[in-house]
Amino acid sequence: AVQAQSEGPLIRAPAAGVQRAMPGIKKKPLKLDIGHLTEKNVGQLKKLNTATFPVTYGESFYADLHKWVEYCRLGYYADVLVGSVCCRLEDRQAGGKALYIMTLSVLKPYQRRTFATQLVQWAIDRAQCEERKGDDVREIYLHVQTSNETALTFYKSFGFEVTRKIENYYKKIDPPDCFVLRKPLNGHALEEPGGEAVSQE
After folding, report:
1. N or C: which end of the chain has fewer CB within 10 A?
2. For 17-32, how does the pLDDT look when each residue is reduced to its tens digit (9 = 90+)?
3. How confident is the model at residue 16 (pLDDT cuts 50, 70, 90)?
4. Is 36 a catalytic residue?
């Protein structure tokens, strides 16, 4: 079993919440209602993450989310919280900002309803909207466990590219390696960090 781990705001959770596909009949897509994250509903987010992730997020993670509320949203269906996406802005060596997907979660009974797709698309659209133009977001990226083919296929469908493999990235999770997936935004191209060549391992 995967043991819980807490690393504060930089906690490493596999695949940003995209679970491996389960056999079964494809379900009808449903429309997700997007809501803001506030101090009043952060407790609901904690319960959602506890139910969907094999790791435990510490209080410092939630305390820091107020810095990134413009890039965090909750997903509701029939007034029930069923998913969320939380991202943060980071400085890029080549200039501008990168939007990092920290968590993406959907409750198991509501998976395969396109909710995860709608949440990721919201993040991409948010980073490219006129309102957030001043943030100068030039790319969006995340880490995905190397064995999670479902997540890799899912993010590649949005135009994300595997640009790097990091060995022993995860703690107490097997396999511990991850891929870095990146997607350029707002008309920019991907520059390789530190001049490194793209690795397609």
Report:
1. N
2. 555 444 455 678 899 9
3. low
4. no
The residue annotated as part of the active site, out of 100, 110, 155, 169, is: 100
Q: How far is CA 132 from the centre of its chain?
A: 19
Cis peptide before 175 (omega within 30 of 0): yes
- CA neighbor of 143 nearest in space, from 37, 4, 3, 12: 12
AA identity, residue 67: K
What is the value of pTM for the model shown?
0.84
For the record, the structure tokens of 121 come out as 């698309």
Which tens digit of pLDDT belongs to each residue from 102-156? 999 999 999 999 999 999 999 999 999 999 999 999 999 999 999 999 999 999 9
- Of the residues 57, 143, 169, 170, only one is catalytic, namely 143
Query: DSSP secondary structure string, 76-90?
Result: EETTEEEEEEEEEEE
Q: For residue 99, what are the CA distances in angstroms to 73, 88, 93, 162?
A: 14, 6, 13, 16
